[in-house]
């Protein structure tokens, strides 16, 4: 759906309310008080009122929009721009386009939507062949550190991330200058440290036991054989890593470029949200206009509320 079609379909607040209402009714309305499924629409309060006990369930209740005072049109426009723009959009740019006076509500809205993306991707676990590597993303922290600056792993101003890329080996001999496997999906998990136990927990949360993990010889991957059926570990030189694990390094590079190009500087507390957005869009890169509709459904689903894993402001 291009921008002209979007404007024609959702020209005002009423059309946006009607769209969110239709999706919620399609999912099914259940009274929180008595469990009844019979409701009528209250146009005064934009709510579904229970026919049995008169309990009022607002259109925002149980969704990503709960407790938000922003117009429904803002939410729909944000979902459109976050899904239909290839490189994404910053909160400052969205604020400018919406003409909203304050930055913070727009910033919080976008982080809530990123959290929805992360929760949706959590439903899918990898199996088969998975390339695994660790990465360090430059982040900003407001906490003052009196220690002298460090270099390399564990240095200040960097957040540790475990990256998994689901791949499918190609049949036959690969062509010259072509990768020997095809890329399918990616997961990125921010971790507090580089211990083998922490890495195992991150990998176990995103893969199934029948997975074959391919990694380099870093000591943080020492215990992966405890949680997966097969661990192919290979010690490689830094300059050869992109050849041995091509897709996971491609995803790391793409994610870093995306964050640097749009947001310039990311706080460590919110890095996972930004990575969730990147992975969500990469994993659904062939969805086209369906990506917009899918995120709306996920945002309206009543299973969202209370499950946001990361600080959304």
Summarize the entry for a quick read:
The protein is α/β, with parallel strands linked by helices and 313 residues long.
Describe the model.
This protein is of the alpha/beta class and 313 residues long. Among the domains are: 1-59, N-terminal domain of TfIIb, CATH 2.20.25; 129-141 and 155-268, Nucleotidyltransferase, domain 5 (2-Layer Sandwich). It has ten helices and eight strands. It has helices at residues 3-9, 13-27, 72-84, 91-98, 104-121, 196-204, 241-244, 246-262, 271-283, 290-300, and strands at 39-42, 47-50, 56-58, 129-138, 158-169, 181-191, 212-216, 230-234. Strands 6-5-4-7-8 form a five-stranded mixed sheet, with helices on both faces. Helix 3 packs across helix 10 and helix 5 (104-121) crosses helix 9. The longest helix has 18 residues, at 104-121. InterPro entries: Tnp_ISXO2-like. Residues 140-150 have a biased composition (Basic and acidic residues). Residues 125-283 form the ISXO2-like transposase domain.
């Amino acid at each position: 759906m291009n921008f002209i079609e979007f404007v024609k379909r959702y020209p005002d607040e009423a059309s946006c309310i009607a769209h969110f209402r239709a999706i919620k009714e399609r999912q099914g309305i259940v009274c929180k008080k008595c469990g009844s499924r019979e409701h009528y629409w209250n146009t005064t309060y934009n709510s579904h009122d229970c026919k049995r006990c008169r309990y009022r369930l607002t259109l925002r209740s149980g969704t990503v929009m709960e407790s938000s005072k922003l117009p429904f049109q803002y939410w729909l426009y944000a979902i459109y721009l976050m899904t239909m723009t290839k490189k994404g959009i910053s909160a400052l740019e969205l604020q400018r386009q919406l003409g909203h006076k304050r930055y913070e509500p727009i910033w919080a809205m976008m982080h809530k939507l990123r959290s929805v993306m992360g929760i949706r991707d959590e439903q899918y676990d990898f199996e088969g062949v998975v390339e695994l590597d660790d990465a360090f993303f430059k982040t900003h922290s407001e906490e003052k550190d009196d220690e002298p600056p460090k270099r390399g792993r564990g240095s200040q101003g960097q957040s540790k991330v475990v990256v998994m890329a689901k791949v499918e080996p190609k049949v036959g001999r690969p062509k010259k200058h072509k990768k020997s496997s095809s890329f399918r999906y990616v997961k990125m998990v921010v971790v507090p440290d580089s211990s083998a136990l922490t890495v195992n927990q991150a990998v176990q949360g995103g893969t199934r036991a029948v997975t074959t993990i391919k990694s380099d010889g870093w000591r943080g991957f020492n215990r992966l054989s405890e949680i997966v059926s097969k661990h192919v570990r290979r010690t490689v030189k830094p300059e050869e890593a992109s050849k041995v694990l091509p897709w996971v390094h491609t995803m790391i590079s793409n994610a870093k470029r995306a964050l640097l190009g749009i947001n310039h500087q990311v706080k460590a507390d919110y890095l996972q949200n930004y990575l969730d957005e990147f992975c969500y869009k990469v994993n659904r890169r062939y969805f086209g206009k369906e990506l917009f509709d899918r995120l709306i459904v996920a945002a309206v689903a009543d299973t969202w509320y209370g499950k946001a894993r990361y600080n959304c402001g």
